[in-house]
Amino acid sequence: MNPYKTHGAFSWSELMTTDPEAAREYYSSVFPWTFSEMEMGDDGVYHVAAVGGKPVGGIMKRPNEHIPVHWGYYITVQDVDETVARLKDLGGTVVMEPFDAPGVGRMCPVADPQGAHFSVIAYENTDQERHARSVVDAFTQEGAFSWFELHVPDAKAAEDFYRELFGWTIDWQEMPHGPYGVVKIGDVSIAGIVSSPMENAPPHWASYVTVTDFEAHAGRVADAGGQALMDAITVPTVGTFAYVADPQGAVLAGIQYEPMPEQQES
Fold it and tell me: Is the entire prediction scored with pTM above 0.90?
């Protein structure tokens, strides 16, 4: 499955921060990311992170101080305008009207009915084979974004919205903290949906980056100035992870997976 071509696939992760250069230094210490630069005119420099020569995400300066420092995520669609119209019908919110980014594609930042933000994107050049990374291989590739997770007050209420918008199938499993929805495109699992255990936590999409040695990763985080927001959690048959804030405050999780049954990508 090529995330750049597949409707409903997470295809890009992007950090908006106060200090892109400092963030670049931090993440290159924590993960095996190498960086290249793209000039964006008045918007400054866009730092593209890659693993094994394939891009995994971008870092940029936030456009204004009203935007919180955060990791944001792009979901591929076939037609941005049609998707945005459907999103409105389903109770979602358009944060900014759709726009074209030359050389990249058409995109639109939006929010679901419970307030979790994400962006939809249709790529200008859909022939991204040299950049496309196997979704399944991301579970073993150090430094790859491998899992995305929606935290909302009501996980079950989110199901209809995302199923109708992206055609996802969602398999519900009972977990100690409540129902957990496993999001699939075909037979490939790509994300999860969970009711947030913290009452005051804002609705949001979170992400997990694969590491092959969690203890070593935790040491690199501490040495680089990151802050662990929780004790590491080990989920049987899944793996060990912890959410971490970078020095500017953006949050993501590093995860070392247990060996998994093979998935077949269509």
Answer: yes
